[in-house]
Model the fold of this input.
Amino acid sequence: MKAMILAAGFGTRLQPLTHKVPKPMVPIMNRPILEHTIHLLRTHGIRDIIVNLHHLPEQITDHFRDGKSFGVQLHWSNEPEILGTAGGIKKAQPFLDGESFLVINSDVVVDIDLTKVISFHKSQGSALTLVVREGDSPEQCDPIEVDDNDRIVHMVGASSMNMPDDTTRVLFTGIQVMEPEIFDRIPENKFYGTTTDVFPEMLKDGLPMFVYWHNGYWKDIGTIQSYLDVHKDLLDGRMEGGLPIDNSNSSDGHITQPVLIGKNCTIADTANIGPYAVLGDNCTVSDHAVIEHAICWEGVTLGKNSHTQQSVLGNGVAIEEKTTLANKTLAQ
Done:
C-alpha cells in the first residue's frame, strides 16, 4: 500500500518557531516530526510515500532527499498555492491512483498498528475509514458521529435526517484509509477540503464509511503547549515503540531525570538540567544556568545564572546572563 503524508501547512499556531522552520522539520526528541511519521509507516511495511509541501519546502527535501537513507522511497508534491487536504490528495492522484491508500497528517505523534487499520478497512468493504478516538470534551471532537456498528452516520454539511437515536461523537486523529474512487469527487487545482467538502457528499450518497477506534497514544503538536506535553509524555515513556532516540547522557552538570541531551553539548559542572528538559545538538549551558520543563533546539546558549522553564527555544537562540524565562517561545 502507498501512503500520503500531509505536510503543506504553515504551522501557524507554533509561530514564531515556524517562521523559518517548516512544521514537518519541527523536532520531536531532537528528530524532525516527519521522520517519526516515516518511521511509523516503514514499520508497517509502507515504503512508497508521497509528501505534499508548501511552506519552506527546500528545507524538507534537502534533509530527506529520496528517502532511501530513511528506508523508504519518498516522492514530493509541491504546492505553490496551498490546495487544502482534498486538493493536495487530488494533486497526488498520479502516484496514489489504482488501489487503497493511507493518508496521515504530519503533525501527530502516535503509536498505532497501521496493519490492523488497513485490514479493518478492507474487511468492512469501506470507501473510507477514519481512525478516531474519544475526545476529552465534546468541544474537542470533530463533528463526526458514528452508530453502534462504527459506521459514520453524520458529518457537518451532511443531512441529519434518518439518523439513529444513539450516536457517538468522535475525535478524528488525522489518519485515514481511502479508495481511489475519491479522486472523482475532487476538482483539480482548487482549494478543497476532505471533512468539509468531500466526506459529507460521500455520506449523502450512502457510501460505506467506518471508523477504527484507537485507544493508544496519540497527540498532535498543533500548539506550543501540546508540543511541550508530547515531550513530557515521551520522556516518561508513555508511548511504546516509536523512533529510536539517541541520548548523550552527559555526566556534566546536575541532571534531574528525565532529560534528553543531544550531541556535542557543552554543559557547565554547576548547571542544573531537568526534569523534563530537552537539549538539541551543540547547545551550551553555562555556569549555574537552570533549565527545566523546556525544550532547546540546536545551538541554543543558556547564559550564566539564567533560568528557563515551560519554554521552547528555537535554533541558535541565546539567553543572556541572569535572565528568567517562563512560558516563552523564542526563535531567531
About this structure: The chain has two domains: 2-235, 254-330.
